[in-house]
Amino acid sequence: MEREFSGQSLLSRGDSGTEMGSQYISESGFYMTSFAATIFVASLVTIGVLLVTLVVSLAVMLQSCESRSKGIVGIEKASHSYCEILALHGELNGFKHDEVPPVCRSLAVRYIKEGGYARDLDFTMRMIESFFDTISPSNDRVVLMDIDDILAPDPRSNEPSSCIKGVTNLKQRRTLELYTKLRLRGWSLILLSRKPERQRNVTAQNLNSIGYSGWSFLMMRSDRETETSEYFSRQRKELKEQGNEIISVISSQMDALTGWSMGIHVFKLPNTWYES
Length: 276
Known about the structure:
Layout: H1 2-21, H2 34-93, H3 102-113, H4 116-132, E1 141-146, H5 163-184, E2 188-196, H6 200-209, E3 217-221, H7 228-241, E4 245-251, E5 265-268
Parallel strand pairs: 1-2, 1-4, 2-3, 4-5
Helix pairs in contact: 4-5
C-alpha cells in the first residue's frame, strides 16, 4: 500500500510538474492587406515625385534669376561703354548738358555718388604732383592752369547742397591746393580763361577772394575771338616766341588741351557734363 501510494504520489507529482512546466506563448504583429500595401507604396512614390519636381523647379528658378542678373549686368556694361565714348566725343565737341542722353546722366550721377569722380580726381592730382617732383622751376619755365572751373562757388565751402555741387567744390579745392603748392615751389603760373578781356578786373578780384594770388599772367580772350581752341593755341605760341618754355598745361576742358605748343606734359582733370 505504501509503495502504491508512493507510486501514485510520484505519478501525481509528475503530472503536476508537467502542468507547471508548460508555457503559453503569444505573438503580436502588424498585418496589412494587399490593397493597403498598394496605397502605401503609391503614396511613397507620389511624395518622391513631388520632391523631385520641387528640386527641379528651384533649379530652374535659380537659373532664370542668374540669367536675368547677367542680362542686366550686360546691359549696364554696354550702357557704360556707350556713355564713356559719348563723353569723350562730347568733351571734344563741347556738348552741353541738354545734349546728354538720360541713361548717361543717370550713370554720371551714380559715378559721382559712388565716389568714382573723387577717386579719379585724387589719382590725377597725385600724378601731377609726382611729375613736378621730378622737375625744377626756372625763370623761363611756365605752367598754364585753366581757371574757369575754379571761380564761384567758393571752393572752400564744405557743405554742398547737392552731389553735383559737391564734386565741383571738391575739384575747386584740390585745384587751389595744387596751385598753392606749385607757387610755393617757385613755379611761374599763367592762368587761362575763356572770359572776355572786359571782365579782367572782376575775374582778378574773384581769384584773389578765393585764395589765388601771385600768378605771373592772366590770359583773357579778346572780344573778337570766338574759337577758344584757336585762342589758347595762339596764346601758347606767343609765349614760346617770347622765350618761355611751357612745362605743362592743366585743365579739365579739351579746348585748352589741344592745338599747338602744348608743352612737356598735359594733364586733364576729370570732368562731368553737369559742369557745362
